[in-house]
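As a next step, the fold was encoded as tokens, giving this record:
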Amino acid sequence: MKKAVVALSGGVDSSVVATILKNQGYEVIGLTGKMVNSESADIVCANAKRVADKLKIQHVVFDATEIFQKKVINYFEESYKNGETPNPCIMCNKFIKWGILFDYAINTLNADVLATGHYANIKNIDGIYKLYPAKDEHKDQLYFLYKLTQEQLSKTIFPLYEFSKDEVRKMAIEFDLPPKDSKESQDICFIPKPLTTKKYLTERFGIQKGSFVEIGTGKKLGEHDGSYLYTIGQRKGIGISAPYPLYVIDIDAEENIVYLGKEEDNYKTKLALKDISFSYPITDNTFDAWVKIRYNMQAKKAKCTIIDNFIEIEFYEPVSSITSGQAGVIYDINDKHLIGGGTVI
């Protein structure tokens, strides 16, 4: 009997995964990473245990608070402090889910595979594992998985790739799972509601008065409470009146200046990526691909050029809100499987 460790959050997706694998004859263990010491984290662990008890499977809670603080929360805060917009889910996947939890599942619990509730499809093509989009295009999560290695992909399964979210919800009801009526989980798990990212950062860094400056003229337009409270492309919440809608075009964290401009100032065709990860070895240094620079955008066609440890991206048409710190993720031009990605400089 094969053994599958399921990253069990107590939510609908991971609960259905555990049920599917149990029904397929796997020995299933639920593994819940405790990310922070908080009431909401305790609730996650308790919900996961309820699911495990319902399925009559072993449940393990792994204390990941120390490494989560170092690799995810500290990174999140430092990014905003440096004028960047972070992507904590990608770092959590790298250091937590496919870091310490993956290692614990495979090496300590002796699992054959780690299973999660991600919506993505892994295919073994001529001995190379490639990530393909899931059936439910609205839930496709390749963007967050670009740092996974061949070793990790070879021991990972995503049972939900062939289902839509609605189908998964129906299965949760059919299986009578505890979280069958639960809502989607919030974006940033360590910022409990009703706390917002803005309030969280203000509590962390305090009010730091700085200037709004018009990008083209250098004219001061007003004051803000800290450059870390803004992100490239932002339009709402600026609070400056002008004859035209104002957008955040650039951020100088060192000088605490937020540059504002018109919508057309927000469009560019070129960017560069650092901290590159490829899903498998790449043979061509220059190639066309589909590229996304944020999760919820439609992929755009671009020319990619690998230069040393960087990738230069040139879009065939201008894209808005190229934001330092976000992930730039590259997909095959023909079938849209994941090639790799990096961090926008």
